Amino acid sequence: MKFEGIYTPAITPLDESGQIDRKAFAAVLESLIEAKVHGIVVGGSTGEYYSQTSQERFDLAAYAKDVIGNRLALIVGTGATRTEDSVEYAKAAKAIGADAILVSTPPYALPTERENAVHALTVDRAANMPIMLYNYPARMGVMMGEEYFSRVGKSKNVVAIKESSGEMANLHLLARKFPHIALSCGWDDQALEFFAWGARSWVCAGSNFLPKEHVALYEACVIEKNFDKGRAIMSAMLPLMDFLECGKFVQSIKHGCEIIGLKAGSVRAPLRPLNSDEKRTLETVVATVKRTVGQITSGANRHA
Fold this sequence. Notes:
Elements: E1 5-9, H1 22-34, E2 39-42, H2 54-68, E3 73-77, H3 83-96, E4 100-104, H4 113-127, E5 131-135, H5 137-140, H6 146-152, E6 158-163, H7 168-177, E7 182-185, H8 191-196, E8 201-203, H9 211-223, H10 227-244, H11 249-259, H12 276-298
């Protein structure tokens, strides 16, 4: 499998009682298919996997496959503290016919690079399907580095990495020494830099509610190779990216979905929803991004 384009880590809508709203989830998936994103991730941190039971995760992935069918690539997250649990999520992803799995570092455990590599390769052996690694040390506690990549990169199934360390040195390491592991942007405000270094995909939560704008940046940089246009789009999107990092990331993504008419519901504890001031600020930011990117992509900015 080749990772190219925009991959959306889908939100998990909740009803008023805090249970997963399957109808609203199907609507989210349909909206992404209609917007022509290139793939959907289920069981990612944006989907609040950490607050879900194992059965909820199994059921949600299977339901996503039922809704999506073969219209888009489905990637299923296997994140868990126990390797044994990650193995079960991977096996379930294989059983439902998912296209790939997302393999991250077990959170809180703080494994060494060798231990972390053994974890990934154990999951790999259990599923034998395409893998996108997920390097997110801010959440997992440790960095995937050169020793890790040297070990896991030998597997034919390790085809891509969502690089979310924010460390430009790791981007350079991957691009120069491990070019067979396809780069995918996982740090939104570095998307332009990732594309300049050869990344051909972007796993971006903001595409839950601004898919066309994220696709526009990808197309400008990767398809058209027009980095002047890419810089203009990126500049217009930076206020959104800054807002999303205010400390209420999932809450902001969910409210963004509400802004465009999708039913998202609240977030599960311990998180709490945005307050009214935060909601108003996000609404203003989203309106500005839509207007500005629309002007850039339509060519209206040429005469500015």
